[in-house]
Amino acid sequence: MSARTKARKRAVDLLYSSDVLDRPLADVLAAEAARALEEPSRRVSWEYARTIVSGYQEHADVIDEMISSYSRNWSLVRMPAVDRAILRVAVWEILFNPEVPRQVAIAEAVGLAGELSTDESGAFVNGLLASIAASA
What does the alpha-carbon distance between residue 25 and residue 23 come to, in Å, rounded to a whole number? Predict the structure, then answer.
């Protein structure tokens, strides 16, 4: 697994934890930063994960609005928390990280959905992200 793939998964974990535990994202980031200092093997993936989560934090309103606008019959709060986290990571990459090709962001998100969420989540994530990417 590449360092960026690990970082995306870590970013999903951080966003998910903040969401489910109702902890401020800044607190979750601080705890993970301390953990990364203690475990040097985590540093490479931690840096990109921090970039993703900080980017989401900076653009949360735009990202969440895009997800809400393009999801049909699924409000943001009705989505499984893990799907919400995966979508937030991917939409940040699609809209705000020109270094990542859109198709890579989508493929990585679909892979995470298949690994971490329901059987239907991969198709849902793929369709929603394809629509957002086409409009961006």
Answer: 6
Closest CA to 59 of 13, 93, 92: 92
Containing 41, the helix (H) or strand (E) segment is none
For the chain, the distance separating the N- and C-terminal CA atoms, rounded to the nearest angstrom, is 28
Please, what is the average pLDDT of the chain? 93
Spatial neighbors of 12 by CB under 8 A, at least 6 apart, are: 82, 85, 86, 89, 112, 116
Pair of tokens at residue 91: 């939409």
Which of 92, 99, 104 lies closest to 136 in space, CA to CA?
92
Structure tokens at 89: 């990571």
Q: Taking CA 34 as the corner, what is the angle to CA 30 and CA 36, rounded to the nearest 5 degrees?
A: 115
pLDDT value for 36 = 80
Q: How far apart are CA 109 and CA 88, in angstroms?
A: 10
Q: Which of 46-50, 51-55, 119-123 ranks highest by mean pLDDT?
A: 51-55
Q: What is the arithmetic mean of pLDDT over 74-93? A: 94
pLDDT of residue 73: 80
